[in-house]
Amino acid sequence: MAAEPIIDRQMLEKLERLTIRWQKSFRGVVGGHNVSRFSGPGQEFLDHRSFHQGDDLRAVNWRAYMRLEKLFLKMFQIEPRTPVRLLLDASGSMAAGEPGGGLSKFDYVRKLAAAMVYVGLVRHDTMMVQPFHESFDDSFLASGGRHRFGPVADYLSALEPRGRSSFLQLARHAVNAWPKQGLLIILSDFLDDDDVLKPLQYLADFGHELLLVQLWTPFDRDPAYDGDVALDDPETGATLNLTLNAEARRLYTEAFDRHCGAIESLAIRSRGRYAGIPTSLPLEEAIFHSLDWAGTSIQKRRAV
């Protein structure tokens, strides 16, 4: 039996009509206005300069040459593109799903990633997909238009969650490997034994724009058990024995919501964006509503 595609044809046809607009939050963001001078094709005329050997003859102002018998090169103002990097949490905790079945967080987040990359390809953007845990798997550079989606789908389908989360290592890698400021789309459950807020803040302080997409299962937020429970940590193998009742579950859910709220606040405070998505939310609704960051102002959207 053939493997189920990561995104079916019907969804791809719907994605054709979806436009994700990323607002300007620092100079050079995708679609933002940033004055740049270079010879060649552009959007708005800026100035002239003298022609030098090796310049592109297509940018010569031939009308000026006919009048002055000198070669001048036309200069244009353009909108440079910023690097777009989609960081996919591939740690062991992402393998968790609901006890009753359904998509795991990792299956869900791969489909989200595939949808976002496909929209980028339709827009002729270039996006780097980088899985991460305590180390980093090989990245994939997606570019070339919608007809190059097949290799992206194969790449995402072959990924498997493993290892431990480490947002500190993520921040160190991003700063060392990507010195040029860019747009970081981080898809994760943001569950880490260590602090996640300081590394994320460091990325924002370094100049990256953050788009944080947090995934959780309903069980992550409200473990629907009463009595004695043994919880296994998929990243460390440790077992935590708990006794749950209605009050303990209420306190746990409040703590979970505070954690999500702290991540959301960091994104907004850093002029980034946040979306919180439970895996119980239909994928289509997550893609077309929860991830709709369109508009001229930062919008907070959390699916609950």
Written overview of the protein:
With 304 residues, the chain is α/β, with parallel strands linked by helices. It folds into 2 domains: 9-28 and 80-302, Rossmann fold (3-Layer(aba) Sandwich), CATH 3.40.50.410; 37-77, no CATH class. It has helices at residues 9-15, 62-68, 105-122, 149-158, 167-177, 197-206, 218-221, 246-269, 283-290; strands spanning 37-39, 44-50, 72-77, 84-89, 127-132, 140-142, 183-188, 209-216, 227-232, 239-244, 273-278, 301-302. Strands 6-5-4-7-8-11-12 form a 7-stranded mixed β-sheet, sandwiched between helices. Strands 1-3-2 form a 3-stranded antiparallel β-sheet, covered by helices on one side. The longest helix is centred in the C-terminal third of the chain and has 24 residues, at 246-269. The radius of gyration is 23 Å and the shape is elongated. The relative contact order is 0.14.
Rg measurement, Å: 23 Å
Number of domains: 2
Element pattern in H and E: HEEHEEHEEHHEHEHEEHEHE
Provide the structure class: alpha/beta
Within the CATH hierarchy, at the fold level, what is the topology of the largest domain?
Rossmann fold
Percent of residues in helices:
25-40%
> Helical region count?
9
CATH class of the largest domain: Alpha Beta
CATH superfamily grouping of the largest domain: von Willebrand factor, type A domain
Instruction: Look at the structure and give the mean pLDDT.
Output: 80
